[in-house]
């Protein structure tokens, strides 16, 4: 982990339609955010909040059931503009790498910013840890967040599909993957010459 910058591990939860058919104009909106900022491998800040949607205000029964949240919780959340301003302030403090599990978080954030007519808050690097995990382990398919952490013999933090818990779990996987990458980088594979004494082999062949 680079000591000269901060890492922002972030997760969003979104609205979802009731079934396969989507209402006219429907698009996923951020309704919960959770993140941790990390500098030199140390968590500096944790943040969690519900976010009020701007377009489709009423959550569907499917959305409430899947995320285990209530309409009242979301109604009392921050507005989207406040969220973007807060994220922009964090990004401007110092060089920031944003880390997510999957590419949906940044896609939905960018689309929500376009719909709201506000500037996307992040200027620096954005990393999809699920793709790094896939490349590192040679997986054919993308692995779910909690399945990935369980593959390490660990458990996720808190509850899956709660934004802060998923952000913390992403941070924990990041540390495990970075440790493995560091080991692979520093561990030189042995050659056949390291494993046997070639001079003895050559002497035997000469006999």
Question: What would you say this structure looks like, in words?
Answer:
With 207 residues, this protein is an alpha/beta fold. 44% of the residues lie in helices and 19% in strands. The protein has nine helices and six strands; from the N terminus they run E-E-E-H-H-E-H-E-H-E-H-H-H-H-H. It has a six-stranded mixed beta sheet with strand order 4-3-2-1-5-6. A hairpin with a 2-residue loop joins strand 2 and strand 3 (42-52). It is globular and about 80 Å long. The protein starts with 5 loop residues before the first strand and ends with a helix.
The main β sheet shows up as:
6 strands, mixed
Q: Mean of residue pLDDT? A: 87
Q: Could you estimate the helical fraction of the residues in percent?
A: 40-55%
Roughly how many Å apart are the termini? 55 Å
Low-confidence residue ranges:
none
The number of distinct helices, counting runs of at least 4 residues, comes to 9
Count of distinct strands: 6
Oligomer: single chain
SSE map:
Elements: E1 6-14, E2 30-39, E3 42-52, H1 61-67, H2 71-75, E4 78-79, H3 80-93, E5 96-100, H4 104-116, E6 126-128, H5 129-137, H6 145-151, H7 163-186, H8 192-195, H9 198-206
Helix pairs in contact: 6-7
Based on the model shown, name its key terms.
single chain, 207 residues, alpha/beta, 9 helices, globular
How would you sum up this structure in a few lines?
Helix content is 44%, strand content 19%.
